[in-house]
Structure formats: structure tokens, C-alpha cells
Amino acid sequence: MSKRKDIHNSDIPVVCRACEARHRGVCGALTPEQLLKLSQHTKLSSVKPDTTLLEAETPIDAYSNVVRGVVKLSKLMPDGRQQIVGLQFAPDFLGRPFQRDSGVSAEAADQVALCSFPRRILEQLTEESPELEHKLHEQALRELDEARDLMLMLGRKTAGEKVASFLLLLIDHMDPEGNDDTDTVSFELPLKRADIADFLGLTIETISRQLTKLRKAKLVEIENNRTITVPSIERLRNVSGDF
Amino acid sequence: MSKRKDIHNSDIPVVCRACEARHRGVCGALTPEQLLKLSQHTKLSSVKPDTTLLEAETPIDAYSNVVRGVVKLSKLMPDGRQQIVGLQFAPDFLGRPFQRDSGVSAEAADQVALCSFPRRILEQLTEESPELEHKLHEQALRELDEARDLMLMLGRKTAGEKVASFLLLLIDHMDPEGNDDTDTVSFELPLKRADIADFLGLTIETISRQLTKLRKAKLVEIENNRTITVPSIERLRNVSGDF
DNA sequence: GCTCGCTCTTGATCTGAGTCAAGCGAGACC
DNA sequence: GGTCTCGCTTGACTCAGATCAAGAGCGAGC
To answer: Which of A82, A96, A228, B106 has the most CB atoms around it within 10 Å of its CB?
Structure first.
């Protein structure tokens, strides 16, 4: 990031100037010229909750950066059982490089903003800049780490620990700006109960009961079903099983 | 693979000639010269079941290819609960590129043979050959896909479906040579019951009961607790939940 | 040969989360 | 205002898999 400080801001395409993807996301690997080229083909869009963004089994012809909101990656069993296998937050990259169908589908969890570009462009840029492939590789490794954390959670944690872990995961990923190092946070749940259940391998009813339990134990406060306040992250972590 | 047919075999280092990693693994990205350079620093080793290969939280200074056997990647909770988050079969690459600690530890599940080399060498080769990074990227994406399949399994499948899926996973990964397109296979279980339990998020007793159930349903035959025969892969798939 | 330790199986019982069912509150639409 | 739908909660009951307990099989070491 500091490496780019010397570049005058006017070299940066207007649409990219305020975008997180340029700092923490894959676009950070691009030169101003490449960024310009890319930005000429990008399309910003905003979609409603539960809009399907990628279908499993369907090869994709566009990639996106998540600019705002939360995207659910999910897998479906033939009989309808569903598991959310990952959540993507801004500025994550969305879409499987190298064409292989990844077998997951992607849906907006809440109001989501995307910055999309055709597959062809990304492929060109990858070829001329190994640093871009490196960024994508790093994102893949990061997602792999998260997937494995989730496996531990799904396989070995109790319902209560799962819900606590989920809240902590949200706190970790959302607005890293508002990180004032305090032990207390407040935020909007981007997922509805049904999504949380599909993420944690539980049922809606169990999510509801566990949240009530956390509320009665004064570990969280809940307003309007969606606004969560965690008075002490520390205390919440104590019931997450993570130490 | 066909691209290398024209290279005379004598260009290939002796230790690499019969190695799967040269074909399906990461070494396939290297030129004969690079392979030679690498092979001068590699060390072949063979380790007993349950030997620790990588410790979580400990940065690694060597990478390996799995040449024979099965390696368990696992995560541990502070109170001792354990989850196996991945299994690596020959010729998988073992070790996290770019130094970051991945938080998993690796143990031999059965008798394992490794081909190891110092981190420095891999880093040098990655710098001079983007194709190598590409191979590593592809392996990361493959592992990510597998991790997500496992998440669906851990979160949504019944004990019976989990055990059936596990056997199918083994059939998929083991000796792709012996794949004579028949519907019946026979193989040795590389994991003991306790490992299977940690992999599937169940207990030893449940594994045992589910195997007995499969045996009584004539879906598998079991000899000496370790030798499995599946008379019809098709029928086993029918109880795996995968369609 | 005998014992020890390890892996695995089987049975009896318990329990955490699922299932089924009812009801509430809030926004959307008529 | 009334009714529908959707998201959520709560209670009663059920059940799949965990837990607890006993014992069998088998190879290693003495």
C-alpha cells in the first residue's frame, strides 16, 4: 500500500479511487495503467438480498469484486439440504479463476454492490502480471484457511459455540474501520436466521433459541431482530470454544 | 504430460523418474534443469503412522510432496476436541506456501513416504517460474473445493451418509491406476476408526456401528477391520446423499 | 505361553438438537 | 382498516448420535 503512495491520485481511475479492492483486494496488484484498462470494462451494480449471482454448474463469464454487503456461497444437496460454505465480504474477489466450475452458487445475503468485469480481461491481466495471480493465490489460501476453521466448527462445536463463533466471525470481517480497539461493538446482522442456520449446520429454531440464551446471559443485546450489540467481545469469545 | 514426451528420460533425475509428482503434482511445472536443481536438495523419507509432520503454529522450513500413503491435516480445540480438515494423498504438495502459518498440523495416517526440500529452494524456483506458482495455486483451489465438499458433509449429512461418502472419497483418491472402470473395488483403509471419526465429526462408536450397518446391508465387505471391498460403488453412492 | 496395550465392536442409556406446531409482530398490498 | 406473507420465537415431543461400560481380538514384548 505504501508503495503506491507516490503515485498521484489523478492517475487512478475515478471509479477506483475510493474502492477497498485497490488496497486490500486483488486490484492492488495492478499498475495505474492496468487499472485504467480494467476500469474501462467494469460495471458497477447493486443487487437486492437473495439475488443469485453465480449458479453452481454454470461456467462463469464475468468476475466481480464485492464492494459492499455480504455474499453467501452455498452448496445444495439433491434433496434440498443446504450448506453455506463461505461468506464473502468487501473487498473479496468473487468467481473461480481458470474456469473450473467450483460447484458452489453465490447469492447476495443483504444489499450487495459489485464491481464486475469480463473474464477475458482478467485473463489478459493475469498473463501480463504474475503479481495478480499471486494475489488471487493468496485469496484462495485465505479462503482455504477459513474453510478449515469452519470445518472444525461444523464438526466439533456445540450449537451455542457455533452461534458465538459466527458473531465473532462477523465482528472480524465487518467494517475493519470501526475497529477502535474497544471490547464492545454493535452491528447489523447481514444474514437472516435461515441463512445463519445454513451456515452453521443447524436449524432456524436452534439459532433462535441460542440467540435468546446469549441474550439472557447478557452476552448480547438484540434490537429489531437484526441489530446486535456485544458488550464484551472477550466474554463472547469465552463461550465460542476457541480457547 | 504429453508435452514432456519428447524429452529424453535420461534428462530426468533418477529419483524423479517414477514419481507421480512429476506428472500430476507440482513438479510437472519444472523444466528438466529445474528438476535437477531441486532433486539435488531433496530428501526422501519414510515415516510411521501417527508421526507428526508439521505442527500448527510453527513456521515451516521445508516443503514436501507426499509420495506414498495418506497425511491427515487436523485442527485441535483447546479442550482436546479434534477435527481432521483434509487428507493428502500422493502426489499432493504438503506445506503452506508464502510462510503464513496455516494453523493446521499434519500427521501420517499410515506408512507415509515424503520427498522434502528446503523452503529456500522452492522460493527460488517460484520466482523464476510462474508456472510453478500456477500449479500451487491450482492445488490450493482443489483443496478449497474439497474443503467445501467436506463442509456440506459435516454440516448436513447423517452419520450413515458421512461414512459412505468417506469410502467414496477414498476410492476417488487412492491408486487411480487400478481404475479399471469396474463398479467393484477393494482396498485397505489407511485410517483407523478414531481418525475416521475425527474426519467425519463423529465418534469411534458411531463409525463402528455405521460400518456394521453397511456390512449387514451388503454394501461393503470387511476383513481384518482394515480391508474393505465395495461390491457396487453405484449402490454405495446411493446412500451417500450425493444424489 | 502370558500379559499388556491398542483397536474395534456391541449394548444400554442419555441428551442436544431436530421436528412439529402454534403464535406474534411488522411491513406490503388491497 | 383488514388480511397476507415473511421472519422470528417459543413450547412439547422425538430421535440420531453421544456417552458410558463391557468385552473380544490381536500383535508386541518379556
So the answer is: B106
**Torsion sign (Cα): A119, B136, B144, A103:** positive
Outline where DSSP puts E strands in B137-242.
Answer: 185-188, 221-223, 227-230
Q: Is residue B66 within 8 Å of B95, Cβ to Cβ?
A: no
Burial class (CB in 10 A: 0-12, 13-18, 19+), B174: middle
- Which residues 157-216 of A are in CB contact (within 8 Å) with B? 157, 200-201
Nucleotide nearest to B225 (CA to C1'): C8
Residue-wise pLDDT for B16-31, tens only, equals 888 889 988 889 899 8
Does the pLDDT of residue B240 top 90, yes or no?
yes
**Angstrom distances, CA of residue A106 to CA of A63, A120, B124:** 12, 21, 37
Residues 6+ apart with CB under 8 A from A154: A162, A200, A201, B151, B154, B155, B201
* A194: CB partners within 8 A, 6+ apart: A204
B200 contacts A155? CB cut-off 8 A? yes
- CA torsion A36-A2-A138-B152 (nearest 10°) is -90
Residues 6 or more apart whose CB falls under 8 angstroms from that of B44 comprise: B15, B67, B113, B114, B115, B116
Nucleotide nearest to A212 (CA to C1'): D9
Residue B164 near residue B236 (C-beta atoms within 8 A)? yes
Taking a C-beta distance cutoff of 8 angstroms, is the pair B147, B155 a contact? no
Question: Three-class SS of residue B140?
Answer: helix
Helix axes A130-156, B130-156, angle to 10 degrees: 20
Interface of B with A in 217-236 (CB under 8 A): none
Q: In angstroms, rounded to a whole number, what is the distance separating the alpha carbons of residues B52 and B47?
A: 9
pTM exceeds 0.90, yes or no? yes
**E strand residue ranges, B69-219:** 70-76, 82-89, 93-94, 105-108, 112-118, 185-188
pLDDT-derived band at B129, boundaries 50, 70, 90: confident
